[in-house]
Every structure is written in C-alpha cells, then in structure tokens.
C-alpha cells in the first residue's frame, strides 16, 4: 500500500477545543504519524484564505461554509493522483461533517477506483456521518471503514 498511497490532511493550528493554543493541529500530527509509519507522501489541504486562530471565529466561519455548502479555494495545487490507488484522508469533524476544504480537494481529484481510508479527529462525535457522506458524495470511490481519534489524546500525547 505504500508507493500507491497518499496521505492527505486538513488541519488547523490556533485555539483548539479542550487543548488551548496549538502550533500544529491534531489532524496534521496524526497525518505525519501515518505517513511516517507507511512511508508515503503527504498533501496538505489548506485554503487560500485560511481560518481564524480564535476558536469561536473559526467555528462561525466553518459553520457558514457548511451551511452554504461552500467549496473554499485551496492554496496548493492539487496532487497528480495517477500513481495513487489509496488515499488516507485525515480531517477534523466539523459540524458532524468534513471541513468544506476537504470537499474542494476531493472534487478536484480523480476519485474513481480510489480506496479512501477516512481518519477523523474529534472531541465528542467520532466519525459522525462522514463515512456515509463520503460514500454518497463520491460513489465511484471505495470508502473503507474509518477511524476516529480524539484530538485531545493526540495533542496531550505530544507533550
């Protein structure tokens, strides 16, 4: 699975729920661990505009994007997926869903025939509906059984 696997992640630094201010988001820490373990490439999903460091402001912006079904512009060029058949997708649970930037990423790559392994960071809601949402939104991909890990465990394990 190593050479044909990409680890793509969306994460944010700043004030995090139950943790405080972090220089590296939980999803990024987890993605780094997975990529190191598998010996694979990584791609950071980040928006051109970014998100506020303040948690309440970030939540407002994320909720507005979610309610509008927005597809925020990404900062980085999309990866060439031609050599990849597996995608480990690491993201935080935002409003019981994927962050909208993750949809921008997935909408822009080839998902047909891709095995997607969801890995979600959260505090209370686990994967929520993200596995089902991925299956319904990207029916030509195979959505594998997901894993949910509390962000506080990831952050606290680092210290």
Outline of the structure:
The protein has 159 residues and is of the alpha/beta class.
Describe the overall structure.
- The protein has 159 residues and is α/β, with parallel strands linked by helices.
- It is 32% helix and 23% strand.
- It has five helices and eight strands.
- The chain has helices at residues 26-38, 55-67, 100-108, 130-137, 151-158, and strands spanning 5-9, 14-16, 20-22, 41-44, 86-92, 115-122, 142-143, 147-150.
- The strands form two sheets. Strands 1, 4, 5, 6, 7 and 8 form a six-stranded parallel sheet that branches. It has a two-stranded antiparallel sheet with strand order 2-3.
- The longest helix has 13 residues, at 26-38.
- The chain is globular, with a radius of gyration of 15 Å.
Q: Please, how many helices?
A: 5
Number of strands: 8
Structural class: alpha/beta
Percent in strands: 15-25%
- What's the gyration radius in Å? 15 Å
Intertermini distance = 31 Å
**Per the principal axes of the C-alpha atoms, what is the gross shape?**
globular
In the predicted model, the low-confidence regions spanning at least 5 consecutive residues are none
Average pLDDT figure? 88
Order of helices and strands: EEEHEHEHEHEEH
Helix content: 25-40%
Biggest pleated-sheet summary: 6 strands, parallel
């Amino acid at each position: 699975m190593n050479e044909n696997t990409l680890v793509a992640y969306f994460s944010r630094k700043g004030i995090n729920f139950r943790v405080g201010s972090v220089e590296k988001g939980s999803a990024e820490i987890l993605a780094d661990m997975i990529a190191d373990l598998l010996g694979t490439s990584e791609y950071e999903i980040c928006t051109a505009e970014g998100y506020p460091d303040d948690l309440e402001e970030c939540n407002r912006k994320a909720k507005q994007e979610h309610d509008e079904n927005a597809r925020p512009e990404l900062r980085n060029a999309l990866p060439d997926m031609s050599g990849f058949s597996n995608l480990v997708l690491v993201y935080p649970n935002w409003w019981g869903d994927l962050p909208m930037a993750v949809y921008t990423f997935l909408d822009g790559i080839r998902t047909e025939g891709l095995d997607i392994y969801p890995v979600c960071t959260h505090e209370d809601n686990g994967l929520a509906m993200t596995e089902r949402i991925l299956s319904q939104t990207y029916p030509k991909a195979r959505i594998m059984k997901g894993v949910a890990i509390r962000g506080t465990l990831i952050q606290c394990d680092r210290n």
